[in-house]
Every structure is written in structure tokens, then in C-alpha cells.
Specification:
Radius of gyration: 20 Å
Shape: globular
Strand order of the largest sheet: 5-4-1-6-11-8-12-10-9
Number of domains: 1
Bound molecules: uridine 5'-triphosphate
Number of strands: 13
């Protein structure tokens, strides 16, 4: 199957409890990494990968995301009046980044449920899923790398990281075998959610980027909710790989879990150091700390 992937779903209906109290009122996806909300990094990655339509799955109290990707007339008018041309361009460019639709997940019933909420907007075509709190620094963008694999192999693609050691127990882990022709591709036959190190079927941990065929929607609809009434995306993908080819793909680049305090701190330091306007000053500051 070769078809163009035009749409990317951003599940953003979760509660973000790991970041309380910051996320009591502000959506986790709107927390700033240096000076940009973390979801904007994902939206920019999707656009740079050729995606035309962004679908954000929102929830209660998540209205700030819609305002962020819209025009802010008061702000723009004030910046214009004050002659702040560069800042005005920054504010305006966010509003014209992409075509964005929103769908509401009325209750946070799991990642699979959030993806299912986008079914009508996606329709009968392959689509990408980007978890906004996984910020990935990669060139070419992680999603672009995955879309190339989807085009070449014609099956769903899950981004993975190789994790050697007990850290693997925090992830969904692939079962299967490495592809004989491409060391980054893993031919997937199963997956285990958060296994103990001794039970992990491989070192391939699934992270927050997916390219999926629309069949996964029907399979998610048939999935029985687990504990807490949640529908897991991995259960839908487990059912999918019994019918279709599913590949793991060890992307080239670095992923930060910005939905977690430590991951956000790492990302903040590394992204700030890379910035031409902040990096040199920040580097000197870090060097001067008595660590
Ligand atoms: P997480 O488990 O990382 O997010 O889900 P969370 O539940 O918001 O955060 P914590 O664990 O309580 O701190 C990964 C992504 O899936 C979305 C989240 O918004 C996040 O972007 N999600 C999760 C939904 O959209 N709906 C859900 O029901 C659950």
C-alpha cells in the first residue's frame, strides 16, 4: 500500500498530572520549552514532514491551545502600534502555521480513546499520531523518516528507541526480529506494555510517533477498556499486527520526554544551548555554577 499521509493527530486530552501544580490550569502541551509551547515543536515537525492537516484532540480546560494557534488581535494590534515588527511576525506566524482542527475528548479515557476521537476527521486514510510531550530533535524530522519507511514498506510504522537496561520497563516494547536489509527497521510480531527487564522481548521501546493505517480505528472500537475504563493505543496496534505488517523504526535523532519534569529540564538545557541568541551566554552561566 502506498498512499500519501496528509493528516496528523495530536492527542492532548490527558490530565498531565506529572506536572502538577503547573498543569492545574495550563495544559501540559502549552508548557514552554525555552520560549515555545511543547505542542508547537510537534506541529512544526509535522509540517516539515509534509503533513497538511493537524487534528488536535483536546479536553476540558485545554482552550489555550486553540487560542495559541489563532490570531491574537489585541496582541498583534499592540505590537504593530509599538513598532515591534519582529515580535509581530512571530505572533502572526504561529496563527498561519497549519490547517488545524480540534475534536474534544470528553473524558480522558486513554490514548487509544483519544486517537479514536479523531476517526471522523481522519476518515479512511493512513495518518500520523504525534504525542506532543515527546519533543524530538532530528534532521530530517522524525516523522519524515517514518513516512519514508511507510512509503517504502507499506505498513504501519512505530518510532522506537533502543533501551538497554531497566529503563525499558517504562515503555511498550516490541517483539519480533530486526530487518535483514535495514538495521533501523524491526519486523514486529507483538508488543508487551511496560514489561519487567527480564520479560522484555527486545530492546525496542515505542515512543510517541506513529504512522497507522485506518484499520486501527475499527480495531480500537472493538477493544475492551482496561483498568480505569481506559482504551490503550497499544491494544489497537496489537490487534492490527495480526492482520497487517507493522514495523518498528529506530529514528535518527534525540527524544525528550517533556511531559516529565526531568525530561523537560534536559530539553530546556540542551535546546537553550543550541540557540544562537541564548546559547553562548547560557553556556558561560552553566560553566560558572559550582556543581
Ligand atoms: P500521558 O500519559 O503522557 O499524558 O499521555 P497525561 O495522562 O496527560 O500525563 P500524566 O501521566 O498524568 O502526567 C500521552 C499523551 O496522550 C494524551 C496526553 O494529553 C499526552 O499528550 N492523552 C492521554 C489523551 O489525549 N487522552 C487520554 O485519555 C490520555
Amino acid at each position: 500500500m502506498s498512499q500519501e499521509v496528509r493528516k496528523a493527530v495530536f492527542p492532548a486530552g490527558g490530565l498531565g498530572t506529572r506536572f502538577l501544580p503547573a498543569t492545574k490550569v495550563i495544559p501540559k502541551e502549552m508548557l514552554a520549552l525555552v520560549d515555545k509551547p511543547i505542542i508547537q515543536y510537534g506541529v512544526e515537525e509535522a509540517i516539515a514532514s509534509g503533513i497538511e492537516h493537524i487534528i488536535i484532540v483536546t479536553g476540558r480546560g485545554k482552550g489555550a491551545m486553540e487560542d495559541h494557534f489563532d490570531h491574537s488581535f489585541e496582541l498583534d494590534a499592540t505590537l504593530e502600534r509599538r513598532g515591534k515588527k519582529e515580535l509581530l511576525a512571530v505572533s502572526r506566524s504561529v496563527a498561519s502555521l497549519a490547517r488545524i482542527s480540534y475534536v474534544r475528548q470528553k473524558e480522558p479515557l486513554g490514548l487509544g480513546h483519544a486517537v479514536l476521537c479523531a476517526k471522523e476527521l481522519v476518515g479512511d486514510e493512513a495518518f500520523a499520531v504525534i504525542l506532543p510531550d515527546d519533543v524530538i530533535d532530528a534532521d530530517p524530522p522524525c516523522l519524515k523518516q517514518m513516512l519514508d519507511v511507510f512509503d517504502e514498506r507499506g505498513g504501519s510504522v512505530l518510532a522506537t528507541m533502543t533501551i538497554d537496561g531497566p529503563g525499558i520497563s517504562a515503555y511498550g516494547v516490541l517483539a519480533g526480529s530486526p530487518d535483514p536489509d535495514n538495521e533501523r527497521i524491526y519486523n514486529c510480531t507483538g508488543m508487551v506494555e511496560k514489561p519487567k527487564l527480564a520479560d522484555a522481548p527486545s530492546k525496542q521501546a515505542i515512543i510517541g510517533r506513529y504512522v497507522l493505517t485506518p484499520r486501527v480505528f475499527e480495531l480500537l472500537e472493538e477493544t475492551t477498556p482496561g483498568a480505569g475504563g481506559e482504551i490503550q493505543l497499544t491494544d489497537g496496534i496489537k490487534a492490527l499486527l495480526k492482520e497487517e505488517k507493522v514495523f518498528g523504526y529506530t529514528f535518527e535523532g534525540k527524544r525528550y520526554d517533556a511531559g516529565d519534569k526531568f525530561g523537560m529540564l534536559q530539553a530546556t538545557v540542551e535546546f537553550a544551548l543550541k540557540r544562537s541568541d541564548l546559547g553562548p551566554q547560557f553556556r558561560e552561566y552553566l560553566k560558572g555554577l559550582a556543581l
